[in-house]
Design a protein that fits this description.
The complex is a heterodimer. By secondary structure, chain A is an alpha/beta fold. In chain A, 36% of the residues lie in helices and 19% in strands. Chain A has two domains: 33 residues; 130 residues, 3-Layer(aba) Sandwich (Glutaredoxin), CATH 3.40.30. A seven-stranded mixed β-sheet of chain A has the order 2-1-5-4-3-6-7. The termini of chain A are far apart. The chains are: A alpha/beta, B mainly alpha.
Chain lengths: 198, 259
């Protein structure tokens, strides 16, 4: 468009530049708009252990030998907590997780505490000592830890009713109000405080 | 990908460490620029430092207030170090108010102070983008270009690095390119225009961009407004409105739009 060097002492140059930028900016915004059919692709994204992605599926045996799969829990808010008995912050946040679980279980909260390759006896002693009632999953070959790329303990994923990871907290211990605040956010996503009903 | 380090048994996110580095480097550069512009560098440094501190504390305070019903009976746990429990946008507002309060108490000239902060802000934001790249946040749209990076199960635009490159170029322009400044606040206005322009362009390559209802990327709309506002301000300063009759500074031009 320019015929020669722009003359910055001329008002017309400035006005032309602003008009050009306005038009080009609007055109670029229109061009880079996300098409309607692609807007809901959060659910179509590949599962990844990252906020905004569907949580990778996991299927593990509990301490009692029952198998639990994350895909069976669709419709519930799920906290996936990676932990080990030897990890002090993991121990420190367990009572808080238990309290929040008791308070919100009836509203559709599940906690899956995935243990890092420890023996049944050690984990059983621990859960008895802390009075934990949520499922303790035994990741015997470390596959789920690898799948969730857990590099530090504890690591906690907050998964909403549609299976999307809403928050990831690395490290701890998490305080009880923090866990509860995250849970209320998770439960609030679809049902705006419905009373009973699973 | 290096999201976490284990230091002395504590999990430390690389992103958090880079944020600290970005804050320190940004403040250092702002102080140097303050000296170049003849301002009290300690005051400028402190202004930045208190603003960042207030942002952090304000973000936690805002988070606690947002979930007041669960925090009110256990207020001490508001002090727990969980980095997820922060409401950043409210925190930024508190940080900005703190900066204004400190600046006016120290009688810092607004335009020159913003000029001093601009290169530091560009450097800090550039480092933050590097951290985002290493942490896999703010990731790009899928691409088939040869420089795409494999992340989250796709080959994607390394959009964080595009943003970092743009910020480093802007930093270069502000630090070496501006030889003389026609008015106080010129460098900052230039920074606002260039950074908004870069965001307007690069946001298109970002996969996790917040969207408006019709699929328009929200940041682009804000960026277009800020860019045109900043250029409009430069225009207004270049060609002041006539009003030759009234000497007592009648022109109060529209704000340049902070961020």
């Amino acid at each position: 468009m320019e015929r020669k060097l722009p003359d910055w002492d001329n008002r017309t140059t400035w006005r032309g530049l602003m008009a050009l930028l306005l038009v080009a900016g609007l055109a670029w915004i229109a061009l880079s708009r996300v098409p309607r059919e692609e807007i809901t692709t959060r659910h179509d994204r590949p599962p990844q252990p990252q906020r905004g992605f569907p949580a990778p599926d996991l299927s593990l045996e509990t301490l009692e030998g029952q198998t639990i799969a994350l895909s069976d829990l669709r419709g519930q808010a799920v906290i996936i907590n990676f932990w080990a008995t030897w990890c002090p912050p993991c121990r420190a946040e367990m009572p808080a997780l238990q309290k929040v679980y008791e308070r919100y279980r009836d509203q559709g909260l599940t906690i899956l505490a995935v243990n890092q390759q420890e023996s049944n006896g050690r984990v059983a002693d621990f859960t008895a000592q802390f009075g934990l009632t949520f499922p303790i999953l035994m990741d015997r070959d470390g596959r789920v830890f690898a799948r969730y790329r857990v590099t530090a303990l504890p690591t906690t994923f907050f998964v909403d009713r549609e299976g999307i990871i809403r928050e990831v907290t690395i490290g701890g211990p998490m305080s009880e109000p923090f866990i509860e605040s995250q849970v209320t956010a998770l439960l609030g996503t679809t049902t705006a405080r419905q009373e009973p009903e699973g | 990908m290096a999201p976490t380090l284990n230091l002395f048994g504590a999990a430390v996110r690389v992103y958090g460490l880079i944020l600290l580095l970005a804050a320190w480097a940004g403040l250092w550069l702002a102080a140097r620029q303050a000296r170049r512009l003849g301002l009290n560098e300690d005051h400028v440094y402190n202004l930045g430092f208190y603003a960042l501190l207030a942002t952090l504390l304000g973000a936690r305070l805002a988070y606690v207030l947002r979930y007041w019903s669960v925090y009110q009976d256990a207020l001490l746990s508001a002090l727990s170090p969980t980095p997820t429990a922060l409401a950043w946008s409210e925190g930024a507002l508190i940080g900005a108010v703190t900066a204004i309060a400190y600046g006016s108490r120290r009688r810092l000239p607004v335009g020159a102070t913003l000029d001093a902060l601009a290169p530091g802000a560009a450097l800090a934001l550039a480092l933050e983008r590097l951290g985002a790249f290493l942490d896999g946040r703010g990731f790009g749209e899928p691409t088939t270009l040869p420089w795409g990076v494999h992340l989250w199960d796709e080959v994607r635009h390394p959009v964080q690095l595009y943003e970092m490159a743009a910020l480093l170029i802007i930093l270069g322009v502000l630090w070496w390119g501006v030889k003389r400044s026609p008015f106080q606040g010129y460098r900052f206005t230039l920074f606002a225009a260039l950074y908004a322009g870069a965001r307007l362009f690069l946001e298109a390559f970002r996969a996790d961009a917040p969207l408006m209802a019709n699929g328009v990327r929200t940041v682009q709309v804000i960026a277009l407004g800020v860019m045109l506002g900043a250029i409009g301000y430069l225009y207004r300063r270049r060609f002041p409105p006539p009003a030759p009759q009234e000497p007592p500074a009648g022109h109060a031009p529209q704000g340049s739009g902070a961020e």
